[in-house]
Amino acid sequence: TSNEPAAAPSSAAPAPAPAASGNDQPGEKVVIGFSAPAADHGWIAAIAKNAEAAAKRYSDVEFKPVEPTNDINQQISAVESLIAAKVSALVILPNDGQQLNQVALQATQAGIPVVNLDRVFPDKLAYRTWIGGDNYGMGVAAGHFVGRKLKEKGVSDPVIVEIQGIATLPLTQDRSKGFADALKTYGFSVTAKQDAKFTVETGNQVATSLLQAHKKIDALWNHDDDQGVGVLAAIKEAGRNEFVMVGGAGSLNAMKEIQSGSSVLQATVTYSPTMASSAVRLARLIAQGKGMSDLVENQVPQSITLASETITKENVEKYLPLGFES
Amino acid sequence: MSEPTPPVRQAAGARGAQADAARTNLLSGLRGVGELRHLGLFVALALLVAVGLVTRPDAFATASNLVSVLSLAATIGVITVGATFVIIGGGIDLSVGAVMALASVWATTLATQSYGPVVMAVCAVLVGTGAGLVNGLLIAYGRLVPFIATLAMLVAARGLAQRMSDRKTQLVQQPDNGAIVSLSTTRVLGIPLLVYVFALVVVLGWVVLNRTTFGRRTYAVGGNPEAARLAGIDVRRHTMLLYALSGLCCGIAAILIMARTTTGSSTHGDLYELDAIAAVIIGGTLLTGGRGTIMGSILGLLIFTLITNLFILNGLNTSDQLIAKGLIIVVAVLLQRRNLKERAP
Amino acid sequence: MSEPTPPVRQAAGARGAQADAARTNLLSGLRGVGELRHLGLFVALALLVAVGLVTRPDAFATASNLVSVLSLAATIGVITVGATFVIIGGGIDLSVGAVMALASVWATTLATQSYGPVVMAVCAVLVGTGAGLVNGLLIAYGRLVPFIATLAMLVAARGLAQRMSDRKTQLVQQPDNGAIVSLSTTRVLGIPLLVYVFALVVVLGWVVLNRTTFGRRTYAVGGNPEAARLAGIDVRRHTMLLYALSGLCCGIAAILIMARTTTGSSTHGDLYELDAIAAVIIGGTLLTGGRGTIMGSILGLLIFTLITNLFILNGLNTSDQLIAKGLIIVVAVLLQRRNLKERAP
Amino acid sequence: MLVMRGIVKQFPGVRALDGVDLDVRAGEVHCLLGQNGAGKSTLIKVLAGVHQPDEGTITFNGAEARPGSPIDAIRLGFATIYQELDLVDGLSVAENIFLGHEHARLGFVDRAAGRRAAREVLERLGHPEIRPNAEVGRLPPAAKQVVSMARALSHDARLIIMDEPSAALAHDEVANLFRIIRELTAQGVAVVYISHRLEEIREIGDRVTVLKDGRTVAVGLPARDTPTSRVVSLMTGRDVEYVFPPRSSRPPGEEVLRVEGLSAPGAFSGVSFSVRAGEIVGLAGLVGSGRSEILEAVYGARRAAGRVLLGGRPVRRGVTHAVRSGMGLAPEERKAQALLLDQSVTANITLGSLPGFARFGWIDRGRERAEAARLADLLDIRPPDTERPVRTLSGGNQQKAVLARWLVGGRRLLLLDEPTRGVDVGARAELYAVIRDLADRGIAVLLVSSEVPEVLGLSDRVLVLREGTVIHEGDAAVLDEHRVLDMIMEGRAA
Ligand SMILES: Nc1ncnc2c1ncn2[C@@H]1O[C@H](COP(=O)(O)OP(=O)(O)OP(=O)(O)O)[C@@H](O)[C@H]1O
Ligand SMILES: Nc1ncnc2c1ncn2[C@@H]1O[C@H](COP(=O)(O)OP(=O)(O)OP(=O)(O)O)[C@@H](O)[C@H]1O
Ligand SMILES: O[C@@H]1[C@@H](O)[C@H](O)OC[C@H]1O
Ligand SMILES: [Mg+2]
Ligand SMILES: [Mg+2]
């Protein structure tokens, strides 16, 4: 949240440790094009900001963002305009990997390396490198946390509720699958799930009715900390605290709730927007023909999956600087 | 035509009697229709309630669930009252959701919050009314088509809200400004305060629409603007006021949404415009203006809210919800179709 | 009145001459107005082009950028043609985006894809037309208000599309069905095929609206349905056909969006309804029906598309874009305000 | 009391008023005469604050008056009954009457007071049967006209302007109207009265001002003593009287329309008659006697029991079939039921016969325009520019456009409901000639008119209706106005 007096530094991008081999030294001038969905909520907004902040750190990078949009048709146009402008590398977070695949392929064919961020292009020919979070892993992490907690309490046949993000995104389906798979190992399953649309208000609306539907809940996983603000408000309004709640993504706000120790929200599983900072750095390296200095290889790897970490009261201190403002 | 008066009287008398009979028919017809209209909505509501009772006997008919439904309906309900005025007045307001978002963001900026909850509430109301006034000015004096003017406002208000909030969700500072949130958390007779606010707005809306010159003139301005002008009504000024009123309702709704979500955000109220207009129309108000009731709009809205509530109680997924919702809308309207005959081609 | 004919003829002759002069004045006057309306849109377009030339002299006026603007406009452009018919005919179609999505999903199911690209295209068109026909039946014969009937269709079609696709994005199988995608990738004279499809739909739409009995009746049905009925037009049937036509356009648009995105998806065409209606209205068509032009709608649409393109080229951030977009809409409409005078209250 | 001097009003392409003078004295009924499109309505709209004059002065009781809006005019004490009914359909009778000056306190409406006052005014107008609570949209045209009058009376105006108030009224209602006018003038109220019915002018008018082509051609003529021929020639510049074309000497041809036992509950019952080729059959009756309904039922636009045969064959229900089999209806409310106001005169004229101008749906616009121009010329539609939107025509000329629609070839039966409503004397004679000419060419005509002389003068045969049943059928030539009036009002049975 932006208006916390104690709000964190202007950029959520953490100051990086200097690279060992001087990769940060100015090199060949490169133009990096950037396209992402409309910044209509905290996570995506953090993506855009992190990308920009990462680019600013380098005097040899010219950053060219295009109009973020939630309309596929327009994002295709936007990427086309970047191809026409002959940028040196592209960072693309597609609204939908499958739908932007073709235009990414065009870019690659035009000799522009594409760094695919977050939502994946189905066709490996369409991109040079993918970096993103582990959606399935996120579900798994949340599932394990819930499973362990409930086992500790000795609950059998628990009521487990899941609030998803946008239902039509593949990442949502991955997260749910991971969650279900992990729960299965404890012999548990999800009792009810509903999708909210990643906004505070929809989170609030869906949670309000879900809480009515289930008078006693044992655990609740909410996929997204942005909508989580609304979910928490609904829980407080209903005066409910009998269950464990786990969040998703890792917003600053969620971390503070966890830190307080008095909230139903006891953990969140990360899906960090810092990936955008890394993506821009990777794009720079690729465009300049450099490798990652901590690795042995001469070139940047083909894919990098961030681990989804579980933030709890115990380790939250360490994560606070990485939390994004929702 | 030399001595017309006596026979005419007589004839008029005769016809008077005949017409009286016709009148009785007509009236009972009218009443019937009037009731039927709301009857249709009541039947639809009753059906939904029945479904709820059968499918979730445990969860549906509980006081707490009903209160939940009302709390869910409150925010958009307040907006629907304003939308009813605008639509009866022959206009349309697409900007309602965005204006509510803007008002919520403005009221939750740190600067505003530092003055406490009263200033926050006043701020929300002023921002809402101000935006509505701009709509009204553009439409009444700038002669823009309402659809376009309020669409422009929708787009611009969302943009402004994003800019102001830097696209972040702004928390209501508690405990300092907890008074705002307490609208949602404090209950009187088991009912949260914001439901009372909703009820108050509905009652006031009804009184203004049905018992004041402003209300009467709203029907006239929407039904036949030329006739209204010839009757000496300042149609432009009235039109402007209608949009300001809608904006005022958005401002009040902003307070309620801040209370419910404990936040101000540029994403609040997404697609409210469609929902509000749909509720108004299902309630029997004509998009062409000149006709309609607050009661109908609120019933229409409750039907919508109840549908979603029922679906979630029954664990239906959103895709099936959408399909069912489409069908239910059609059925609900068919139930009251007769009243809309005039409109049909 | 013993010999009425000669004097009358004579008088008519004399008056004829006098009136001839008046007619010339009037005609030039009227033409002026006619042009002025489009002139306003042209001025707005010209201003946008000027802004483009000044801010991005390198990128804006290139052939590839103009082609890209047209490709971007094509999908919704086809839908706008259908929407123009519906709105001139006194209705409204909120379901366009959802119907396009449903058609794209249906056409890209594995079962359909196995029959090859032609069957996919036919399937898209049939699904679109079918959904439009359902809208038309509900409105014309079921007497539902268009706003509600098509809103219900919007909701239901999205739900159905989600169900059919299991909420997943369905790829067009290449190379087998690459013919579909080639509409977007194959260029003739440097212009992708789908732009030609768009142009063809616009021309056909214009011809039907301006040169056929169907078009003439559309104006009549929208302008005064009762008069149309008493003049012997089957108003219901015509109304039904208008929605079917709109659905047909959605089906064609579905083919184009499959070509552009190489996918069918339940998320395609989100909020197209608002954009299409806005383009139609900016183009001078009245929401009350009976008036309007295809040309105006297309100009309106191009203005919207160009705004987006300019923003993309100049890398404006979203929030500022929204604010600017709102302002530009207002200015564009003010430029052509005079024509809308009648509508204003 | 009221003096207008040199009023000029220019519309795009038309100089509607070109230096008009008008003097109205307190307590008089001042009649305004002129052909369709002469500028009468425009003049009174200037007075009512609807239009701003481009030139000229208005003084009222010695002071300069320039109503800039309807509100100003009402404040000055001018009340207006407009030619086109301007009521709000969704509101009740009482609400319409007091619209803009409601009985209210602090913005809160006193509905009971409004209803009471409305009832008073309606009683004064002789229409206690119109209920203050009734919804105006559901009233028949005549009742709407009464509400319009009630609204004007509700203002306590010093000058009341009436633009063709009698066009929608039958003669008994007109008598009522005159009684009110006399009451008003007795109290010193001035009335400006517009009508195309010269006999009304003679009965109620004191002085007459004649307009022609936007100019005043005669001021302050005595209404009772000026010979009709002089008035008409002032208006038209030629000598036409209220004369009907001679009936055809040929016997009527085959039966075209046959109606058997037509009944619609609450409107009419057991109506049977026939119309032959070349014959004009008139329906006479009171307002509300069901004449329009019968026409609509024959046309298939309204449900009714019974049989309708055209050329011996039953017609399938529905207007589309009626039109296809050769019927045409010119309805009584031109604005609501007939015209596409935003479309050109041409498009309005050809609307009923589009397929005749098209091949495979493709319209031959040249042929269409030529036919429209021919008909506009035949009916003397002014201005004779057929590409003008109908909205910009005067009321009478709009009416002619409605008639022209069914004069396009191919009709076997014409149903004309009040075809001359609002049409001026000269054009009326012209219309009569056209209708008779159509009949002579073998078309069957069924005519409804509230002007008994018109029904008698134009028809070959007359059906007299009372409360939805035919009470007399006979040769028009042998009936006279008094007998018909007696029949339709009964009570004074012949
Ligand atoms: N709004 C307008 N725009 C353009 N021309 C108009 C407009 N209103 C009236 N006119 C023209 O002004 C002239 C005078 O019209 P007006 O309505 O005053 O005639 P009128 O004497 O009342 O005729 P009628 O007896 O048919 O009612 C006509 O030529 C008419 O076409
Ligand atoms: N003042 C009135 N209030 C209520 N109903 C009325 C009134 N006058 C007429 N009606 C109803 O309207 C119907 C007939 O009206 P309609 O106008 O069609 O008759 P008409 O003979 O054609 O008269 P008009 O001269 O108005 O055309 C009848 O059913 C009658 O009961
Ligand atoms: O927008 C999404 C974000 O809200 C979620 O938490 O992580 C994945 C993103 O694509
Ligand atoms: Mg007139
Ligand atoms: Mg009648």
TrEMBL record, chains B, C:
<keyword id="KW-0472">Membrane</keyword>
<protein>
    <submittedName>
        <fullName>Ribose transport system permease protein</fullName>
    </submittedName>
</protein>
<feature type="transmembrane region" description="Helical">
    <location>
        <begin position="294"/>
        <end position="313"/>
    </location>
</feature>
<keyword id="KW-1003">Cell membrane</keyword>
<dbReference type="GO" id="GO:0022857">
    <property type="term" value="F:transmembrane transporter activity"/>
</dbReference>
<dbReference type="Pfam" id="PF02653">
    <property type="entry name" value="BPD_transp_2"/>
</dbReference>
<keyword id="KW-0812">Transmembrane</keyword>
<feature type="transmembrane region" description="Helical">
    <location>
        <begin position="188"/>
        <end position="209"/>
    </location>
</feature>
<feature type="transmembrane region" description="Helical">
    <location>
        <begin position="144"/>
        <end position="161"/>
    </location>
</feature>
<dbReference type="GO" id="GO:0005886">
    <property type="term" value="C:plasma membrane"/>
</dbReference>
<feature type="transmembrane region" description="Helical">
    <location>
        <begin position="66"/>
        <end position="88"/>
    </location>
</feature>
<keyword id="KW-1133">Transmembrane helix</keyword>
<feature type="transmembrane region" description="Helical">
    <location>
        <begin position="36"/>
        <end position="54"/>
    </location>
</feature>
<feature type="transmembrane region" description="Helical">
    <location>
        <begin position="118"/>
        <end position="138"/>
    </location>
</feature>
<feature type="transmembrane region" description="Helical">
    <location>
        <begin position="240"/>
        <end position="259"/>
    </location>
</feature>
<dbReference type="InterPro" id="IPR001851">
    <property type="entry name" value="ABC_transp_permease"/>
</dbReference>
TrEMBL record, chain D:
<dbReference type="InterPro" id="IPR003439">
    <property type="entry name" value="ABC_transporter-like_ATP-bd"/>
</dbReference>
<dbReference type="Pfam" id="PF00005">
    <property type="entry name" value="ABC_tran"/>
</dbReference>
<keyword id="KW-0677">Repeat</keyword>
<keyword id="KW-0813">Transport</keyword>
<dbReference type="InterPro" id="IPR027417">
    <property type="entry name" value="P-loop_NTPase"/>
</dbReference>
<dbReference type="InterPro" id="IPR017871">
    <property type="entry name" value="ABC_transporter-like_CS"/>
</dbReference>
<keyword id="KW-0067">ATP-binding</keyword>
<keyword id="KW-0547">Nucleotide-binding</keyword>
<dbReference type="GO" id="GO:0016887">
    <property type="term" value="F:ATP hydrolysis activity"/>
</dbReference>
<protein>
    <submittedName>
        <fullName>Ribose transport system ATP-binding protein</fullName>
    </submittedName>
</protein>
<feature type="domain" description="ABC transporter">
    <location>
        <begin position="2"/>
        <end position="238"/>
    </location>
</feature>
<dbReference type="InterPro" id="IPR050107">
    <property type="entry name" value="ABC_carbohydrate_import_ATPase"/>
</dbReference>
<dbReference type="GO" id="GO:0005524">
    <property type="term" value="F:ATP binding"/>
</dbReference>
<feature type="domain" description="ABC transporter">
    <location>
        <begin position="251"/>
        <end position="492"/>
    </location>
</feature>
<dbReference type="InterPro" id="IPR003593">
    <property type="entry name" value="AAA+_ATPase"/>
</dbReference>
